[in-house]
Amino acid sequence: MNTLKSSVDDSLNSAETSYKDHLCDELSVQRSAILALLAETYLRVWAELLSCSIVSVEYSLAPENSFPRPTEVLYTHVYIISNAAQLGWSGEKVFMIGDSASGNLVISVISKLV
């Protein structure tokens, strides 16, 4: 069974900082427990430095999940952006990053949005 792991770092949500004002989408490759823990640490630092909340979706990896499964999982971002108002966010600011394979997936998600 395929599952979707995602998290939202909203530690900065307060009267001054809320989803309505700030949201950054971040895509990251998390291939091991060590990298996943490091990624979470970096995401918290980025959230603090950028004064925003970060949505992180961990996509399904090959070979267990062949193409197009990773791209389909990341369409979660399309849902978030398309339903921004329902999630309490303006939908005006989006920042998506990825390197290597995840960079390619970012382009796939952006092309789905366009």
Task: Describe what this molecule looks like in 3D.
InterPro entries: AB_hydrolase_3, AB_hydrolase_fold. This is Alpha/beta hydrolase fold-3 domain-containing protein. The chain has a 3-stranded mixed beta sheet. The chain has one domain (5-113): Rossmann fold (3-Layer(aba) Sandwich), CATH 3.40.50. With 114 residues, it is α+β, with helices and mostly antiparallel strands. Mean pLDDT is 67; it is low at 1-23 and 25-35. The protein is globular. The termini are far apart. The protein has 4 helices and 3 strands.
The CATH class is identified as Alpha Beta
Beta-strand content bin = 5-15%
Overall SS class: alpha+beta
Distance between the termini: 30 Å
Strand numbers in spatial order across the main sheet = 1-3-2
Note the total helix count.
4
Sequence of secondary-structure elements: EEHEHHH
Stretches where pLDDT is under 50 for at least 5 consecutive residues are 1-23, 25-35
CATH superfamily: Alpha/Beta hydrolase fold, catalytic domain
Q: Major beta sheet, specifics?
A: 3 strands, mixed
SS elements, strand count: 3
Residue-averaged pLDDT, rounded?
Answer: 67
Percent of residues in helices: 25-40%
Number of domains: 1
Question: Could you say what the CATH architecture is?
Answer: 3-Layer(aba) Sandwich
Oligomer: single chain
Tell me, briefly, the overall form.
Answer: globular
Q: Nearest-angstrom radius of gyration?
A: 14 Å
In CATH terms, what is the fold-level topology? Rossmann fold
